[in-house]
Amino acid sequence: MTIPWLTLLGLVPLVGAVTLLLPVKELSRVLGMFFGLLTAVLAIVVATMYVGGSALAEQVPWIPAFGAWWALGLNGMSVLMVVLTALLTPVVLLAEWKLPNAGRWSPQVFVALVLFLESLSLFTFMADDVLLFYLFFEATLIPMYFLIGGFGGERRAAAALKFLLFSLAGGLVMLISVVGLGVVSTEMGGTPTYLLSELAKLPIGTDLGRWLMVGFLVAFIVKAPMVPVHTWLPTTAEQATPGTSVLLVGILDKIGTFGMIKFCLGLFPEASLWVAPVMVILALISIIYGAVAAIGSTNLLRLVAYTSISHFGFMVLGIYTFTTVGVSGSIFYMLNHGFSTAALFLVIGFLINRRGSAMVADFGGVQKVAPVLAGVFLMAGLSGLALPGMSSFVSEFMVLAGAWSRQPWPAAVAALGTVLAAVYILLMYQRTMTGPVTEASATHVTADLNGREKWVVAPLLAIILLLGFVPGIALDLVNPTAAATISHVGAPDPVAPFGEEGK
Amino acid sequence: MNITAPTFEWLELAPVLIVLTAAILGVVIEAAVPRAYRLVSQVGLMVVALVAALAMLVENFVSQRTGTLVGTSMVLDGPAYLAWAALLVFGLLSMLLFAEQRLGNGATAFAASAAAVPGSLSESEAAVAQHEHTEVFPLALFSLSGMLVFASANDLLTAFVALEVMSLPLYLLSAMARRRRLLSQEAALKYFLLGALSSAFFLFGIALVYGYAGSFGFREIATSIGAPVYGHGLLLTGMGFLAIGLLFKIGAVPFHNWVPDVYVGAPTPVTGFMAICTKFAAVMAVVRVFYVALGAERWSWQPLIATIAVLTMVIGVVIAVAQTDIKRLLAYSSISHAGFILVAVVGASVGTAAGASSSLASIVFYLVAYGFATIASFAAVSMVRDAAGEVHSIAGWSGLARRNPFLAAAVAVAMLSFAGIPLTGGFIGKWAVFTSAWRGGYSWLVAVAILASVVAAYVYFKVIIAMFFGEPVAGVEVGKASGFTLVPLVIGATATVYLGLFPGQLLDLATAVGTFLR
């Protein structure tokens, strides 16, 4: 009997979450970390097996009446997302180790919810069945809702509801399409099926395909927050704990861009080409708007949320310009953004813990009192603005190169976003870290990073640098998937304009 | 004219007969057993009878006994099996709630002496003497027997008789709340008057359809639609009146006005019984009348029911948004669920040979998922208390998770299921309903239903927010309940999650039992 590795991988954190329902009290953090690390190890084992070419896909009938399967599988994109999820979770658990006991919301509940969320996210990334994907996609809202609503700022309950209603509205629009897809599969094939591989073969007509695609796209646009449906993200990030924000922005929002590639492009190639101009423009608006809003933010957490909106704009641009290098870059961007935003959010979290405020104006001269913290902050920030040497530079460059080869003007506008990125990161650094030590900084920021906090950021920065210098380890995985996606969509890469002269 | 004496298919009818016999025995118990032993003997009788009826039903199912019963007045087919099984299970679970005494310090949720004037001396005397109206058990059993017949009636006259047998005890039961008795009596009066009015419409509809078809039988009506003798107008008018009577019972807009008042006024266990069993039986009757008798006429009724479905969903959820009382919220929720069920009724899709679920299978699944979540909710409503009895204001439920995390979790599961969030039965139910409506060509209705779901989600999350994120209210406690409340609560919550994870068995069963015998 073969071991169902993927199911196992998703179940380990779930078992951890269930274990934490027991009254383990003081042990909860240790237990949570144990299950988090176990999952990370398992994820790396699975990724290694994937690289080694093992057959990992699982397929068991689940609801025959709907044609739904318990179908899990990996491709170059999902394996990266799985690794990202499995690595970020223990980091978040470590970062929130000293989470204060906010009333009845004990840290034990936090750890249980994080593990529950990890399990659902892993299944979301691995699902090869549209109904199964939808199920986990929506189910992730439950732990995330409680994570936002239970831990964080004063107005967290309202933020949680806003998050929920946006996501639910997007998700339910997608539900229309998913129901429709099932009906279409029954009408065309006789048997209902939600299996991705079967659905991709269906000759869905142009009009119907476009309608169905739009349903999926709406959910993904809300998820990977793009202007104008992004407003829930800054509110949520401001109220949630930084750890929750990492999970939200670093992992959950990736489902949006992930879904665009896997489902919109995978199931409706024609409709995706049709919608591309709109998506490119939305992406550009997100890039510029997110950056400008970040420059204007007075709250550090909101600021990082806005930079993410800008970054998601880049990912979407890479996807909807349909070049192999652009899609590769987008997928790689998804990975890098996870790590760099995590670093940024968590370092800001350490700052907030010390100062008790997230306002930019409440800091100043931190560099002098906490040099290590400031240094790490700068590193994380530079990774956010895609400095060469950081992994995000590679992906951003690939996206821009891809976009340029299709059409120069979107790439030109997007490049403006990279300039603005330098502005928001460096301005933020200047205002909070440099200059004379303000009284507030001196009284509150008394200690530099402690050992635990260093252990939180060290792996993140190490990965960022590693992927920056050796991007090939990730890109080798991604490239075949990107190439397959592009050939499935049927938009061959444009021939480089200097190709004629170069041969 | 020859009138043939009807034959009695004793075995097939056994589940109904057992319930009826138990109801009659219950009346005898009231007369013969000393007061101190009445409650225990009534509960024992009820449990034994319902389990026996269920066993008999399973035995019939395994032996594949199907066909028309008592001439052609009833029919035992796949849908009837499902409906009977569900009615017996949910009837049992909700009648367990009737027996809860520990929550009320040794008294049930029913008035000590329903005949005494509220606030009078005789009322307090009865309360001090710890009298109990154990008649509620036979009354509920009578009602349940009516529901069983209603769900399998094969002619309009039987349907009408069943409707009355089902409704009359409910009017009485609604009036018997121990607390807030005037509200309860007012609710019962409203329910009775409006119920009687709707019955009159139903009866008039029967007369008109009889005039058109020359028969009460569903099959004969269907035949005569194929070969009409009289004008179409007679049929359409009759159909409209029948629809009014039936839609009143399931609480569809615009015949929903009784629902909130009755749900609030009636004792909570009775509300639970009505919310699940009445709705189940009435929906099955709606489906049977519209599919079997009027199936050929569906081009006429589909637009009508579609309109009502839209109204029911939209008005149900929109008004629910403004509710501050948990029982009223559940009432409007129950209205909106009737709307979602009607979405599948409109679809009238038959499923495919390859096993795609039909409208009927979807409706049954939806009702079962709704039933489990509902029983858990009402069990919870009866447990949250302060000095004056149950706390119904949602503000009073604030911070419940801190007082009793397990109760809050159970309610959260029920609310998530109502909202149609994945990993709960409600999600799969919505899915099934939407799929069958779309397959029937009503994709626009699916879109409307999904928009209504978004609003509905807000409603249910309001309760979750209060429970988990609010500060506890002084004086509100979670009562120490006995097994009579805890068993339905736990079963309801567990089954809701189970149906969300492994819906295949029930869906396959609902598909496999096949469609109506005509």
Characteristics:
A: 503 residues; mainly alpha; two-stranded antiparallel sheet; 23 helices; 75% helix; disordered C terminus; B: 518 residues; 5 strands; globular
Reconstruct the topology from this structure.
The complex is a heterodimer of chains A (503) and B (518).
Chain A: H1 5-19, H2 28-51, E1 58-63, E2 68-72, H3 76-95, H4 107-126, H5 130-139, H6 141-150, H7 156-189, H8 196-199, H9 206-223, H10 232-239, H11 242-252, H12 254-267, H13 269-296, H14 300-320, H15 324-355, H16 366-369, H17 371-384, H18 391-406, H19 408-433, H20 439-444, H21 451-469, H22 472-489, H23 499-502
Antiparallel strand pairs in A: 1-2
Chain B: H1 10-32, H2 35-62, E1 67-69, E2 74-76, H3 78-98, H4 121-128, H5 136-152, H6 156-174, H7 181-213, H8 218-226, H9 232-250, H10 258-265, H11 268-293, H12 298-321, H13 326-347, H14 359-383, E3 384-386, E4 389-390, H15 400-403, H16 405-419, H17 425-439, H18 443-469, E5 477-478, H19 483-501, H20 504-512
Antiparallel strand pairs in B: 1-2, 3-4, 3-5
Please provide a written account of the structure.
The complex is a heterodimer of chains A (503) and B (518). With 503 residues, chain A is mainly α. Chain A contains 23 helices and 2 strands. Chain A starts with a helix and ends with a helix. With 518 residues, chain B is mainly α. Chain B has one domain. Chain B is 72% helix and 3% strand. A 3-stranded antiparallel sheet of chain B has the order 4-3-5. Chain B has a two-stranded antiparallel ribbon with strand order 1-2. In chain B, helix 2 runs antiparallel to helix 3 (78-98), helix 3 (78-98) runs antiparallel to helix 5 (136-152) and helix 7 packs across helix 10 (258-265). The interface between A and B is large, with 42 and 39 residues.
Biggest sheet architecture of chain A: 2 strands, antiparallel
Element order of chain A: H for helix, E for strand: HHEEHHHHHHHHHHHHHHHHHHHHH
Structural class of chain B: mainly alpha
- Work out the helix count of chain B: 20
